[in-house]
Amino acid sequence: MAAAQEKSLFLANLDTLKAAGFSGPAAAMLRFDNPAMTRRGPDEAGGPNLLQKDAPLYTPDAAQAAAAQVESYLKRPVRHLSNFSGIPEKTDLLSHQAIRTVLSGLQGQTLNQTPDPDTGYLICFGLGLGLHLPMLQKALPFRTLIVVEDNPEFLFHSLHTVDWTALAEECKARGGRLYLILTGDPQAVADTLLREMRGPEFPMIDGSYIFQHYASPFLDKAIGALREAMPIIEANDGFFEDEQIMLAQACRTFLRNDFHLLTEAPSPRPLKPMPVFVVGSGPSLDRNIEDVRRNRENVILMSCGTSLRPLLEAGMTPDFHCEIENVEDIGTILGMLSKEHDLSGIPIIAANTVRQDVLDLFDRKILFWRDTVVPTRLLARQEDTLAMTGPTVTNLAIRAAISMGFYEFYLFGVDLGSPDPDKHHSKASIYNTTDDEYWKSGAAMEPFLIEQPGNMGGTVYTNRPFLLTKFFFETLFSRFPNHHFFNCSHGVRFQNAKPIISATLTAMPAEMPRPELVEQCLGELTDVKAGNLVPAARLSAYRVELVDRLGKLKALCETGADRDFDALLKQIRPLVAPVSYRTEFSTKSAVDTLISGTITTILHFGYFMVRRIPKDDRPRFMSLFVTALGDSVAAMERRALALTDELIEERRALST
Question: Are residues 424 and 478 in the same domain?
Fold first, then answer.
């Protein structure tokens, strides 16, 4: 290719990267006037090559090597196949009811062993010169192309050689997009894929293609990190039923209570020069609790969920107690504990969705906007929310303390697993101080079957929900690089949290006594009176959005049986925005949050099934599927409107 043509192609490709949201890599490419490690070789008979110290990276050249590699891959493509193992019979979730209804109508139906070749994603690990990309796109019916590379020089050369604009336009024509991950951190690759693969093509994750262009330690680790993350990537996005509960509880909490509101302050709150001990109820708390007691007077002590009992039983009253879940179990546990200990003087830091019976046990209430749930999307300002407070109460404790100005953290009993897979919680927690089999099982938690490196060495066993929690911890730690995180627990190891033996800790007295520091924290928060955060007009606007969106979905279902699945999916996707792409705080975003988890679960199931059912039987499947989906949408409409009408009336009654 002539130099002028290369330059023109390069500049056009840069514009494509910028338009796709990759201005950073595009700007970096402009600084590569003369790459230090590699260069493009002159075109031979078969095409260009990449040279490293005059040694060609492709044999005999890039074009022939790419063609041979793609031909070999197409004979046995590597695909991610979703594992659909059925639905529990007793669940009353709308998504599960829909799936059970369809499966009941398909009794005796044979399924193909592998799905159709179409899918949502091709993830290409390794770019090189990139000549394999258009070959793969031509041969495989995926929608979104994700390219992973750690060498920016390869991207520079590829932009001079391959028409990236054509790649992006073809992805767009298929209903997908082009995405670039340029990093040398394998975990960052997995973290980015976790977000991006839960995007618009999430229902079509089944059957996604995984292609490795060349061998390297980085790419091997990145693929391994993706394999570990896939159970998390495929995890459900939430359920309509849960969101309804959270909307009801948040609105009624705001209507009935005066409280302190913990927000992300416009300017950072004054730094608090006292260490924070964040205490979970993992099994290693038993071996460390004496070290917590030894340092108690010189630290801020934060109890998290079920760790409150072990601390109180050991004679330590926390400075703050944290709760995030909206389930009945929390009220049951704390109600039992309140009969043995006075909880009223402990300030509680709680999500806006926590149940009223929990809040009633504490005199001083600190509430925050949980950032990804319906009531927050509906009623909050984005700048007031606290990001990264979940998924567990220990995540919340750290994030809340950061917002209040603390910067030095020590984790105890934040195990997320155990060296002994049969031990899941502290001996002093509710899980091991009752004869109830439900609690003894860890409240029906998943068994610890997944191996992970231990914080203090060795192997720790964990499960999928705890792996998701680990991911969010590591994301939280990386977002606050100027804060100090130390892990005294004997569970899984966290990146960016230094392991430390608790026996070596000695907290020194601070200039301000601890009780005064707690009062300072409370005094810096916003005081809110009952009813101020639930405007009736906002609830009415939400009702209008519900009628519009669910009405459109019902209309699609009424005629959807006449379409193939792809056509139906294409029409539904604009009406159901994925969580990872939902950034606004509005009535529209609130409705997205309400319905997306349930609808996406049903669509994911439909995509899994329809591509395995013999083609002659697919019209029958579509009839069953669209009817079940339509019934779910109609039920959501009835329940959502009924709750919204109740809340509107309750808000109006408060004003009279």
Answer: yes
Q: What is the pLDDT of residues 233-286, one digit of tens each?
A: 877 767 999 999 999 999 999 999 999 999 987 788 999 999 999 999 999 999
The tokens for 1 are 């290719």
Give 458-504 as a DSSP string: SEEEE-HHHHHHHHHHHHHHHH-TTSEEEE--SSB--TTSEE--GGG
- Whether residue 84 lies inside any domain: the answer is no
Domain boundary among 190, 214, 233: 233
Say which range, 92-101, 487-496, 580-589, has the weakest mean pLDDT. Answer: 580-589
Same domain, 436 and 561: no
Neighbours of 504 (CB within 10 A): 8
What predicted TM-score, i.e. pTM, was given to this entire model? 0.85
Q: Which residue, of 187, 218, 233, is where some domain finishes? A: 233
In a domain, 361, yes or no: no
Asked if residue 60 and residue 138 are part of one domain, the reply reads yes
CB 385 within 8 A of CB 250: no
For the chain, the straight-line distance linking the first and the last C-alpha, in angstroms and rounded, comes to 78
Rounded Cα gap, residues 56 and 40, in angstroms: 9
The CA distance from 198 to 237, in Å, is 9
Claim to verify: residue 492 and residue 615 sit in the same structural domain = no
Number of domains in the chain: 3
Residues 133 and 17 in one domain: yes
Q: Tokens at residue 56, please? A: 């060609």
Same domain? 541 vs 447: no
Question: For residues 261 and 117, is the Cβ–Cβ distance under 8 A?
Answer: no
Judge if 177 and 226 occupy the same domain. Answer: yes
Q: What are phi and psi of 129, to 5 degrees?
A: -80, -20
Q: 156 with 288, same domain?
A: no
- Any domain includes 202: yes
The 10s digit of each residue's pLDDT in 48-99 is 888 877 788 888 889 999 999 999 999 999 999 988 766 666 678 999 999 9
Angle formed at CA 18 by CA 17 and CA 22, multiple of 5 degrees: 70
Q: What gap in Å lies between CA 473 and CA 442, rounded to an integer? A: 21
Task: Compute CA 296 distance to the chain's CA centroid, rounded to the nearest angstrom.
Answer: 34
Instruction: Indicate whether 561 belongs to any domain.
Output: yes
The gap from C-alpha 231 to its chain's centroid, in whole angstroms, comes to: 11
User: With 80 as the cut, is the pLDDT of residue 143 above it?
Assistant: yes
Which residues form the domain of 182?
3-76+115-233
- DSSP calls for 399-440: HHHHHHTB-EEEEES--SSBSSTT--S-TTSGGGS---HHHH
Cα separation values, 234 from 8, 161, 194, 524, 560, Å: 41, 35, 9, 40, 26
pLDDT in tens, 536-578: 999 999 999 999 999 999 999 988 667 789 889 889 988 987 7
**CA–CA dist 411, 336 (Å, integer):** 26
Q: Where are the beta strands (DSSP E) in 510-610?
A: 526-528
